[in-house]
User: Which sequence fits this backbone?
């Protein structure tokens, strides 16, 4: 075991982590620990764009953006945070441009903007062009630009280091962050990083679904590490299902495709979104479109021999426009489906996409231990966190924005905290848990296999807690997850070595997915209403009287050593906007 | 507007016959042996699946110790460049049906970088070369309050080289790089190109000087391996030629 000391440690080198690192490296001695090489992070997969009311191509302002964000989130958004997001969006985009990001340009040479779902002019009047983009590889350009600037600033990276535990020390009755424990992929060595401040920026957890746009490595490690140390997770029942994943594969086809004029059609060729969202049509918010797709499928208007998908039709768009604005996604259709989007519609289905919930933070990125108490020295930003700017449903282009705005904020706040505070003493045997976990898995001779359990989990999640949920399906999921957690105790790995043991790490990642799947299902069961991405067929309406509140899930360990999940609730911050019925 | 023809796509996809495929994989684990060796695995798989799916099937069902990098699984993150049937490709962007599955499919690590285990190589020298070309925008003077302006044509000038995902498929397909790891390699030059031809940047001269080095751009023998290998379709050789020309004319 090795011990390192840094002022600030950042867990993750996606958009949020690197945006934080650029700030904190200027102000404090910073280490970035990342399980992937920074440029491999899934921010690079983002396609469509980043929202900001620049008003470069038509009238727009941050207040409209705030409203759309709140409405898009089905009023579960904390409105003070949404306002910060929308206001700081403008500088966030301009900062990236100054760092070198090659945005697409207008004829005037300013940053070009395009339409995106749920973004409107004047509180829902009509779609507005608010998404700043670089073809359909905006996330790639953000990730590259941030990495380039990290190189410029001399940010120190520890690549292929997996953070597996959060260290907390109680000082005078206050729980403070003391550092993290990481596993080095190349050597199998365990490292303790003592740090004055720690920022989690470890991304999402979509891999507990089977059909997903998320990378294999998005396994909720940060959420799980904090949760196991008694910290709450907020709003985990809210997961976004993006309407247009490649049929069966889940690979994303950006909403920008519909922003450019693409149309969803059922087997009769009908533009069915006209029925469900007369104004915004194909650009209604994602939860609405995903449910509409499944409604079409359920009512027998799905396409294909099994009627299990619909079409994204781009055939009426000029090939030059597709080449210029959507080159990557049209190539995905060619590569993975053998389909030519110039002439043929693309089969799609909703795909598990984005975790609205996560580690609760305030607007400075400080992690909350309960509804109000901050954990000194602990921060989170990006998809791992829940500020909450996305509420029950995130608007497209608001996440690339979120990682930049709150990545920056948490980087500054964590470095400033480190400048003012001393190291907190490490707990005794800080690496104990991780060592035990690794040793147990390596030594285990159990009969269960990681891949089989993971597949059972994913199939169970797809079947029971996806776009449509009921008491019954969720209970089925809770039960199944419980069974899988039992069986997980008998999991063994074949690779017993120390070098690059990805077999072992997949086993650890599965443990995280199981924990988080359980939190999601238990939180979903208790929310007896429908709101945003959480749709209960047995409670199809939003219930503001009983459920206009955030879920806070805690792990409890009883005297008998048994684990359970305790749910509590947190009020939603409402400032300007009173909840209204959501229509698009 | 024509209503799209809806049933074209389905006909094929209804039946999906699994076929038996042999994967012949170059294995190396210094914890076990100093020697690399070939190992065959036979699996049943839908030929429309990716080589990456095949590797996962082997790892998940047959041999958990098979080791490779991957993340996004759709050609965006650059983790899984490898030599498949003797050519550098991304395993996640190569469909089994497209590489003659009736014969054994050979899979080896990319060349020119030290193999650490199975298909994993040491990427550090590759990233070092990238970092050495000053891969970031350099400007002087006061920051404007709004964005810097750039015409659509100026933006287009370096569009191709912004697509790079740093997978190393190009660099590790280059015979010059195989023989001499000191050579910057195509990927670093591509990323220098991305800034040299960006109208907002002011450090083109410095970057060109770096590439004028004995291990720089003049080592390129224009074999086009890199262009063939690039999974993002970047015209790598062309970009290198443009950098060479800029060195001579000092115009960019
Ligand atoms: C296909 C796709 C398209 C999208 N398109 C858009 C879009 O157009 N607009 C938009 O606004 N949003 C979009 N999103 C959402 C958005 O891209 C993501 O939510 C966002 O990029 C997440 O960034 P992040 O920095 O939080 O996490 P990531 O970029 O996922 O980075 C996570 C980082 O954490 C590291 N990490 C994880 N676990 C550990 C661990 N245990 N130890 C150490 N390091 C760890 C990883 O190495 C990685 O560096 C899209 C998402 C997907 C999947
Ligand atoms: S796994 Fe990301 S490029 Fe292949």
Assistant:
């Amino acid at each position: 075991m090795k011990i390192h000391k840094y002022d600030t440690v950042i867990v993750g080198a996606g958009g949020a982590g690197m945006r934080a690192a650029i700030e904190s490296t200027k102000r404090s001695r910073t280490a970035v620990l990342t399980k992937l090489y920074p440029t491999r992070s899934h921010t690079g997969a983002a396609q469509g764009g980043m929202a900001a009311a620049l008003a470069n191509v038509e009238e727009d302002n941050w207040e409209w953006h705030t409203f759309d964000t709140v409405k898009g989130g089905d009023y579960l958004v904390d409105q003070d945070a949404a306002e910060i997001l929308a206001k700081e969006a403008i500088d966030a985009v301009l900062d990236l441009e100054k760092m070198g990001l090659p945005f697409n340009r207008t004829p005037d040479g300013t940053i070009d903007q395009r339409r995106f779902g749920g973004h409107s002019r004047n509180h829902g009047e009509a779609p507005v062009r608010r998404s700043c983009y670089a073809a359909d590889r905006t996330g790639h350009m953000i990730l590259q630009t941030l990495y380039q600037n990290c190189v410029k600033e001399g940010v120190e990276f520890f690549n292929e280091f997996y953070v597996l535990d959060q260290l907390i020390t109680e000082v005078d009755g206050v729980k403070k962050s003391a550092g993290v424990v990481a596993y080095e992929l190349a050597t199998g060595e365990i490292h303790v990083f003592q740090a004055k401040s720690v920022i989690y920026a470890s991304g999402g957890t979509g891999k507990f679904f089977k059909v997903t746009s998320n990378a294999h490595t998005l396994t909720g490690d940060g959420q799980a590490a904090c949760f196991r140390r008694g910290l709450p997770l907020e709003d985990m029942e809210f997961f976004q299902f993006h309407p247009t994943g490649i049929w069966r594969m889940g690979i994303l086809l950006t909403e920008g495709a519909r922003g450019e004029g693409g149309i969803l059609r059922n087997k009769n060729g009908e533009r069915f979104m006209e029925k469900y969202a007369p104004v915004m049509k194909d650009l209604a918010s994602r939860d609405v479109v995903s449910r509409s797709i499944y409604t079409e499928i359920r009512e027998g208007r799905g396409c294909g021999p099994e009627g299990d998908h619909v079409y994204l039709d781009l055939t009426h768009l000029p090939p030059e426009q597709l080449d210029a604005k959507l080159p990557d996604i049209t190539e995905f259709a060619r590569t993975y489906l053998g389909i030519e989007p110039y002439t043929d519609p693309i089969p799609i289905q909703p795909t598990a996409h984005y975790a609205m919930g996560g580690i609760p933070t305030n607007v400075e990125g400080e992690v909350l231990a309960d509804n109000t108490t901050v954990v000194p020295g602990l921060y989170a930003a990006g998809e791992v966190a829940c500020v909450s700017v996305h509420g029950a449903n995130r608007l497209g282009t608001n996440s690339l924005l979120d990682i930049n705005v709150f990545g920056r904020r948490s980087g500054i706040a964590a470095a400033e905290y480190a400048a003012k505070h001393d190291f907190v003493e490490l707990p005794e045997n800080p690496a104990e848990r991780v060592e035990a976990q690794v040793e147990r898995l390596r030594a285990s001779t159990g009969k269960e296999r990681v891949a089989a359990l993971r597949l059972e989990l994913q199939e169970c999640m797809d079947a029971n807690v996806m776009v449509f949920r009921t008491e019954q399906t969720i209970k089925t999921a809770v039960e199944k997850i419980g069974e899988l957690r039992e069986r997980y105790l008998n999991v063994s790995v074949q690779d017993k070595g120390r070098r690059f043991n990805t077999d072992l790490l997949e086993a650890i990642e599965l443990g995280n997915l199981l924990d988080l799947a359980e939190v999601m299902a238990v939180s979903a069961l208790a929310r007896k209403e429908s709101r945003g991405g959480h749709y209960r067929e047995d409670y199809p309406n939003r219930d503001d009287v009983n459920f206009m509140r955030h879920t806070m899930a805690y792990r409890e360990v009883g005297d008998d050593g048994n684990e359970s999940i305790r749910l509590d609730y947190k009020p939603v911050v409402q400032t300007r906007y009173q909840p209204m019925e959501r229509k698009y | 507007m024509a209503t799209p023809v809806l049933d074209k796509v389905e006909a094929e996809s209804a039946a999906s016959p699994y076929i038996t495929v042999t994967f012949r994989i170059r294995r190396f684990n210094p914890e076990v042996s100093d020697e690399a060796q070939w190992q065959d695995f036979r699996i049943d798989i839908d030929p429309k699946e990716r080589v990456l799916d095949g590797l996962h099937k082997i790892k998940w069902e047959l041999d958990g110790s098979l080791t490779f990098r991957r993340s996004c699984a759709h050609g965006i993150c650059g983790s899984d460049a490898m030599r498949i049937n003797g050519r550098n490709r991304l395993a996640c962007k190569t469909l089994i049906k497209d590489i003659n599955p009736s014969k054994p499919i050979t899979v080896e690590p990319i060349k020119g970088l030290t193999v650490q285990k199975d298909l994993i190589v040491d990427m550090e020298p590759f990233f070092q070369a990238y970092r050495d070309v000053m891969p970031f925008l350099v400007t002087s003077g006061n920051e404007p309050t709004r964005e810097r302006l750039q015409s659509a044509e100026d933006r287009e000038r370096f569009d191709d080289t912004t697509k790079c995902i740093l997978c190393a498929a190009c660099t590790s397909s280059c015979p010059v790089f195989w023989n001499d790891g000191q050579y910057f390699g195509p990927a670093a030059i591509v990323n220098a190109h991305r800034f040299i031809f960006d109208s907002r940047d002011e450090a083109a001269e410095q970057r060109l000087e770096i590439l004028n080095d004995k291990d720089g751009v003049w080592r390129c023998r224009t074999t086009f391996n890199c262009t063939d290998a690039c999974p993002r379709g970047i015209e790598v050789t062309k970009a290198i030629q443009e950098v060479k020309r800029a060195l001579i004319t000092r115009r960019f």
Q: What stands out?
A: Chain B has a mean pLDDT of 93.
